Amino acid sequence: MRAPLRHFRLLSTKSKPQSSLPRRLLKRLISPPAETPQISGWKEWFAHLNDDSRIQLKQLQDNLMKDVKVDGSMENTLMMGEVNQFHFQNSLAEIKTPTLLLHGYAASSMAFHRNFEGLSKCIRDLYAIDLPANGLSPPQPLEIRCTEPQPLKIEISNDTFKLPYTINSLHHKSAIQNFEDYYLDALEQWRLDNKLGPINIVAHSFGGYISFRYAVKYPHAVKRLCLLSPLGVERNIFSVNNNWRSNTQYKLDFENPASKFYIRKGPAIPPAIFELQTKVLRGLGPLGARLCWNYITAAYARVPSLKYKQYIFEMFYGKNALTQTSKDIFTGLFTNRLLARDPLLDSLCHVRSKKLLLMYGDHDWMNRKAGLEMVTEAKKLGIDAQYGEVSSSGHNLFLDNPEESNELIVSFLRN
User: Fold this and answer.
1) Which parts of the sequence belong to the AB hydrolase-1 domain (predicted)?
2) Among candidates 130, 95, 140, 187, which has minimal Cα distance to 410?
C-alpha cells in the first residue's frame, strides 16, 4: 500500500544537483537520443516556409487523439469561438467536482494526452483547454492599460547585487497584472461559459503559475489546486515586492528559495534568445529545424509517442505556432533566469482554496525546495497543503510517468 501522500518521497530534494538550465538546453540541442528517428532539416525547413501552423496542429491533434481511449464520452469544441476545449464525461466516475487540466508554456491541452484515459475513469467532468494564443485557441487582443515601466536592472557581482536606481513598484505591478489578466479573465469567462461552479485545477509549469494567480483573483472559483512542477514559486531578487534601496549592496542567497535575496545558480539565458525564443530556430533555416527536433526528442525521451513529438515540433518550429502574444506575456512575467517578477510565495497569503498539492518529478530541473517551502508556509496559514514526487520523471512528470501521476492526482482530488 502506498504511503500517505503528504509523506511521499519527501526527502528526495536532497538528490544530486543538476547542471544549469542553459547547459541542459545546449546538450539537448546537440545530443539527441540515439534511438530516435531522425529528420531532414532541409525537408522540414522547406515544408514550414509558408504552411499555416494552425492547420497542421489541428491535423496532428486529431491524429494523436485517435489513439486515446477514455471512459465515457469525449467532445472537442472551440468554445465560444475562442478556446479549444476537450470535455470528457463519465457519469460513473466518483469525483464530482469538474476538473480542469491546464498546460504549461509553449504547449497545449495535448500535453495531457497520456493522462486522459486514467483521469477520465475517476472524474465525471474532465476538461483540458488551450489557453488563448496557444495551440488551437486563437489570440485575443492583449490590452496594456499602462505605460511600460522603467526596466528593473540589477547589477550582479560575484555574491552581491545592487540597483542603480529606485523603481516604481506599483507601476511594475500594474504592468504584470495586465499580462496576467489576459489569461485569468479568459479562464473565468471559460468557466462561466461552461456554466460551472467551483472547479479543481491541475496545472503544469507556467500553467501552474497562471492557475495560482487565478485562484487568488477568483477565490470563489477554485476548490482544489494541484500544481505540477510550477514555474515562478521562489522569491528572488527581481521581485517587484522587495523595495530595494538604490545603490545599496546586498548579499545574494543561492540556496534558500524563500529568501528575497535568492537567485538561481549558473548563467542566465542570453537576452536575445530569451526574447526571440523559437524565432532563433526558424532563423537558422534547415539547421534550426534539425536542432529543434534534437531538443524535442531529448526533452521528451520518456514519452513513447512519435506522434506527440511531431506535434510538439510543430508547436516549436511551425510558422507563428508560438504566438507573439504568448511570448510577450511570458517575457513580461518572468526574467531570463526564469524567475517570476511577482513570485507565488509572495501571494500565498491570498489563496483561499481548500486544498493545495505541489508535485514534481524526481529528476525535475524545477526548484523542488521552493515547492516544499510553499507547502510549509501554506500549512502555517491553515491551508491543507501536501507535497509529492513522481518517480522516473523530470519536469514533464505527468507525461514521463502518467500512471503514478494520475494516482497521486486522483488521491488528492478524492480525499
Assistant:
1) 100-257
2) 95
Q: Distance between the two ends of the chain, CA-based, in angstroms?
A: 16
The residue among 207, 261, 217, 254 whose CA lies nearest residue 239 is 261
- Candidate CATH numbers 3.40.50.1820, 3.80.10.10, 1.10.1040.10, 3.10.20.740; the one for domain 5-29+67-152+169-232+324-333+343-414: 3.40.50.1820
CA separation for the pair 31, 19 (Å, rounded): 15
Per-residue pLDDT of the chain (415 residues; tens, 9 = 90+): 333 344 344 433 344 445 566 666 666 666 666 667 778 888 988 888 877 788 999 999 999 999 999 999 999 999 999 999 999 999 999 999 999 999 999 999 999 999 999 999 999 999 999 999 999 999 999 988 889 898 888 999 999 999 999 889 999 999 999 999 999 999 999 999 999 999 999 999 999 999 999 999 999 999 999 999 999 999 999 999 999 999 999 999 999 999 999 999 888 999 999 999 988 988 899 999 999 999 999 889 999 999 999 999 999 999 889 999 999 999 999 999 999 999 999 999 999 998 999 999 999 999 999 999 999 999 999 999 999 999 999 999 999 999 999 999 999 999 8
Q: How far is CA 98 from the centre of its chain?
A: 21
Q: Strands across the sheet with 160-162, in order?
A: 155-157, 160-162, 250-251
What is the distance between the alpha carbons of residues 282 and 280, in angstroms, rounded to a whole number? 6
Q: How far is CA 212 from the centre of its chain?
A: 11
Distance separating alpha carbons of residues 366 and 361, to the nearest angstrom: 9
Residue with cell 485562484: 215
Grid cell locating 269: 539565458
Would you give the distance in Å from CA 357 to the centre of its chain? 15
Strands (E), 240-367: 250-251, 355-361
> Cβ–Cβ contacts within 10 Å for residue 243, how many?
10
Secondary structure element (H or E) that encloses residue 379, with its range: helix 368-380
The domain locations on the chain are 5-29+67-152+169-232+324-333+343-414, 32-50+278-321
Where does 194-303 have alpha helices with state H?
A: 206-217, 271-276, 278-283, 286-299
Q: What is the pTM of this model?
A: 0.92
Classify 217 as helix, strand or coil: helix
- Spatial neighbors of 248 by CB under 8 A, at least 6 apart, are 162, 163
Judging by beta carbons within 10 Å of its beta carbon (0-12, 13-18, 19+), is residue 105 exposed, middle or buried? buried
